[in-house]
Write a structure and sequence with these properties.
The chain has 242 residues and is of the alpha/beta class. It has helices at residues 17-26, 49-55, 75-82, 97-106, 152-170, 187-193, 202-205, 210-241; strands at 4-7, 32-37, 63-68, 86-89, 110-115, 133-137, 175-179, 197-200.
Amino acid sequence: MDFRIAPSILSADFARLGEEVRNVVAAGADWIHFDVMDNHYVPNLTIGPLVCEAIRPHVQVPIDVHLMVEPVDALVPMFARAGANVITFHPEASRHVDRTLALIRDQGCKAGLVFNPATPLDWMDHVMDKLDLVLLMSVNPGFGGQAFIPEALAKLGRARAKIGAWTQATGRPILLEIDGGVKVDNIRAIAEAGADTFVAGSAIFGAKDYKATIDAMRRELHEAAAAIARRREAQRRELGGA
């Protein structure tokens, strides 16, 4: 399976941000996750397009911008110009979800929806044709360093089933990302539940050795891929026997 690890710069040392993103990419990060909070949709205030533009020259990997803002649309072109590759937003923060997804894709970026722990997945059903990514929050958004909410595993399974059915019908894949409390000791279970893209903030930037932490996550993901393959083979044999 193709897994992606996306360190969240919300937990980085902002006094050394350019150095931090270079170091984490050198340590093996696939994406850089960029959390935008507006002290309105969520109770925190973080960073904007100027910071995205500032770090863009420091890394060649995709920048994954998560908009925790309301309203959304005015910021989309600004982040696209600043170098974002992926832009996700919360459906509750848009007056017209379909139109906002189309706007993101028109700007040349991958588009995705973000679901809070209490937000139902029903929004997906009406816009699958415009989704490149679905992001499930496994904490309530607003602050880094929170503990993983175990109920997110079952929700991942439901989202994976929706994406699997869509991909089988259309041939078009949709990534399934998880954000919140992802660590070395739970990333395998999260992957086995259905995630393929993993946002990790304090687990990576709070470690003394970024590479050792990312390598440990990779080993857990390798074990998860093997377990998923065994499960699929068992299901195939069961169906064949039936």
